[in-house]
């Protein structure tokens, strides 16, 4: 009887092994590494959960003790928005729908004996109350800039290995490849960061693509988990390192934007665009995808998870092409036409950057407006998005 009860479980474990590993490789093979060798185990990733809480608390301290003083030093104030007139009826409607339609506005007008324009003005002021201040945006971007810069420097310095320039070594003796302490630290740090991002998204600047980014962060966490579990760590570190490289310049451009250093912002935006192009449209497809698609086929042969992972990488590359097209279009409009259409993925209400842009209308049309950088940031999302 016990044997019959174990059969479904044994079949399920057999199918999982056949899915995630090449032929003749099992979970048991990775559970008993030779002396001095370490193989990845799924339980190792549990360290990321308490570390994610630590990363979140570190972020709060960093924003309060480092980023905010820097913002004040650059004269970036946390301006208090105008307060809407207290009204229980409108507040109740606002909690369910921040932008009521014309039919709802007419109903509220009759109920409150207010003009429709007055109600529209109340909702506009109320939305502005929830709009994040420039200082809050600066602090959030400074934290991300610091993390991306630090983790990228760590990846380059500590993970400098032959397979960084000879990508075929990503597949030699796969999946029986030693996981160094540096690789483990890098994976755990990235996983903890994205776990903290997923949860802190509920208190960060709220955007219209909240659900999309939540799903994106969850997908990123799953991909990091899967690549670690089946020991695709060498290829995984290449993917994460390439994505972090361009995000450094994006966050730096946003910081210059908030501090109103327009020329610096323009220069950093150009560097970001170039780094995005080379890392995600050159190195990523012709270096990373090539080795995962062709070198691995030649050295270890395809297996079930191979098709899934390559499919995900090709989907990611498609997104890179779309994102770069949108980035290039925004940049061209900003530089040569001096105007950019509003991005639907911007903040809850018209970004406070638009208020700043009104103070720069007298500047040349040959410069990027403050909201242009935010639009690119929204299009790129957290798409360091792996």
UniProtKB/TrEMBL annotation:
A GO BP entry: ceramide biosynthetic process
Keyword Glycoprotein part of the UniProt annotation: no
Spans traversing the lipid bilayer: 42-62, 145-164, 210-229, 268-293, 305-327
Domain of life of the native organism: Eukaryota
Lyase recorded as keyword: no
Keywords carried by this UniProt record: DNA-binding, Endoplasmic reticulum, Homeobox, Lipid biosynthesis, Lipid metabolism, Membrane, Nucleus, Transferase, Transmembrane, Transmembrane helix
Major subcellular location class: endoplasmic reticulum
Reactions that this protein is recorded to catalyse: sphinganine + octadecanoyl-CoA = N-(octadecanoyl)-sphinganine + CoA + H(+)
Compartments, as annotated in UniProt: Endoplasmic reticulum membrane; Nucleus
Pathway annotation from the record: Lipid metabolism; sphingolipid metabolism; Sphingolipid metabolism
DNA-binding region: 92-134
Signal peptide stretch: none
Membrane-protein topology: Multi-pass membrane protein
Residues in TLC domain copies: 136-336
Domain Homeobox: 90-133
GO cellular component, one term: endoplasmic reticulum membrane
UniProt protein name: Ceramide synthase 5
Organism: Takifugu rubripes
Gene that encodes it: LOC105416273
